[in-house]
Design a protein that fits this description.
34% of the residues lie in helices and 29% in strands. By secondary structure, it is of the alpha+beta class.
Length: 112
């Protein structure tokens, strides 16, 4: 059991972000702040992204991660946080794959 707990902690996006920051990497964090309908990740889920485009965690189970990583790279460059919204009523719904229904709001900010 202890091995599983250690593995879970090693995969925790917040732990990974801390390790990346300690290594001198620029890091952004994306946090699910609101969902409606069939969003696959709950509020509070995280995705961390570094300046090289590496990422860990999930905000949507694969539906919008690519779009969030792209936005996070811009947040790292500008230093300005962003609120992102994806869903079936949004013109990007087909592009990011939320065609099953629902909406998701994700707040992206730079850490450190």
């Amino acid at each position: 059991m202890e091995n599983n707990a250690a593995l879970d902690e090693a995969r925790d996006p917040l732990v990974i972000a801390e390790n990346w920051l300690d290594a001198g990497r620029q890091v952004a964090i994306a946090t699910v702040v609101q969902t409606w309908g069939s969003a696959p990740r709950p509020v509070g889920s995280h995705l961390v992204i570094d300046a090289e485009g590496n990422f860990e965690g999930s905000v949507s189970g694969g539906c919008v991660e690519g779009a969030v990583v792209t936005e996070a790279m811009e947040v790292l460059e500008s230093g300005k946080a962003r609120m992102l919204e994806f869903g079936v009523a949004d013109e990007t719904a087909i592009q990011v794959g939320l065609s099953c229904g629902g909406t998701i709001k994700v707040y992206v900010e730079r850490l450190g």
